[in-house]
Amino acid sequence: METMKKKRRTNSERRRTSRSRSPDKTGPSPINALDDGCLMHILSFLNPIPDRYNTALVCHRWRDLACHPRLWLRVEESPVKGFCGDGVFPDLKTAVLAAKPGDTILIAAGGSHVACDIQIKKPLCLVGGGALPDDTILTCARGSDSAFEFLSTCKVMNLTVRAELGCCFLHRSGRLIIEGCILQCEDNPLDYLCFPIVSTASNTNALSTVVKGQGDSVSVAHTRIEGGAKAVLTSGTLEVQRVRVIYSRASLLFWFDVEKMEKD
User: Fold this and answer.
1) Which positions ≥6 away from 100 have C-beta within 8 Å?
2) What are the pLDDT digits (tens) for 205-256?
3) Which of 121, 160, 212, 233 is least surrounded by CB atoms within 10 angstroms?
4) Coiled coil: which residue ranges (predicted)?
5) Does position 70 have pLDDT exceeding 80, yes or no?
6) Which of residues 63 and 162 earns the better pLDDT score?
């Protein structure tokens, strides 16, 4: 009998010891043990929208890191006229000039944003800060050839771009990715001059036929296109391929690529 009691005490002590050594599942996550610089570096690999945007909802620390100027440049109107904080710019053209290759520019929802003949020669990501693309509207006024002229690999997401006369995006070279946007051109007697997307790229990169994603191309996904003689005008060697359209009551959503036709 004594032997059985000793065994029970020994087993219960072992269980208590193992429980005390096991990690506390309700404790803080191991990722929060990282310092701010390391955690911010990890967040930089996330897609700006929605992944990095959603990380700001985790806690106050993650919000500060996810919104740090190192990860975003922001275009928004300052409550104090002429004053802008670190990483905040009053207009899109200034933000593009200040950006470094690989930066993401978050454009605030609402307000009036002007985009006229903004030339981009470095890899950038332009993201609308609203819940929907029509929450962030960029306007290209008459007298401008385009809202943006791209000469490098860039990504544009969650934006509405309106061109009064001309084109929304002028693609010269590089890989342009357009996702979840609305491209609008005015319907008027000169609509043959208005095209949401114009590409003049010649795809002279010899690696483009060997390595996927190299060379010049345009990829459009989940984008609404309104007005203009046609959605895309190409004057280089690129062609529209793999077109897919989803019809809804209010609009048509497009998926397509503009790239060089591969020879058999």
Assistant:
1) 122
2) 544 433 444 689 999 999 999 887 788 889 888 899 999 988 877 677 889 9
3) 212
4) none
5) no
6) 162
DSSP letters, the chain, are: -HHHHHHHHHHHHHHHHHHHHS--TTS--GGGGS-HHHHHHHHTTS-IIIIIHHHTTT-HHHHHHHT-TTT-EEE---SSTT---TTEESSHHHHHHHPPTT-EEEEPSSS-EE-SSEEE-S-EEEEE-SSSGGGSEEEE-TT-SEEEEE-S-EEEES-EEEESSSEEEEE-SSEEEEES-EEEE--STTGGG-EEEEE------GGGGTSTT-SSEEEEEEEEEESSS-SEEE-SS-EEEEEEEEE-SS-EEEEEEEEPPPP-
Residue 35 has a CB neighbour count (10 Å cut-off) of 8
